[in-house]
Specification:
By secondary structure, the protein is an alpha/beta fold. 46% of the residues lie in helices and 15% in strands. Helix 3 links the parallel strand 6 and strand 7. The longest helix is centred in the last third of the chain and has 24 residues. The chain is elongated, with a radius of gyration of 30 Å.
Amino acid sequence: MSTAVELVLAELESAGFQRLPRPLVVGGAVFDFDAAVAGTGVSHDLVVVGGQGANSAHLVQLLSGLNRSLDRFASRRPVSLVLIGSRPEPEILADLEDNARIMVIEGELPEPTDIQDAIAVLLPLRLPPTTREVADPLDELVTDLGRSTSDEHRVLIDAARIGPEAVQEAFRSYLDQALEDTTEQGEGEEIL
């Protein structure tokens, strides 16, 4: 197995993918990709790897057969192909894309950042650390309302600190009270 394929596998395994035995066997059919991994946990992708010397036309046949085998077993795993080396001709690339999501990593020995960039859709998002304290949105709301904050606002904001059900109940009580007030005002009036 080439060093480039090993680098790709190491990156995928660090993201929670599980290496599959070679050759890949699905429903008794054998598929001789350079490597294959399956997503675990959140990802359900089946990722196959075509190394530097992979024949693109042969990969089209392998992917087509793999998809038929997966369909036979009603598999819901999406198939992705990580292709290491030069980008295939547009016609071959279109045929590959008919069978899988294609990620091309150009070069014989790609840098780790090139691999991460190419397979980014398969990797979990990494959020940058926050360097400042996040403001409480409810406090920000009170600040924005300023002196126009009413008693009703305060009741709803206090309920929001508890949770959505408390807001619903507070709003329901507010509406009930408003309807009672309207009904009481209308009782003493005579309609002509």
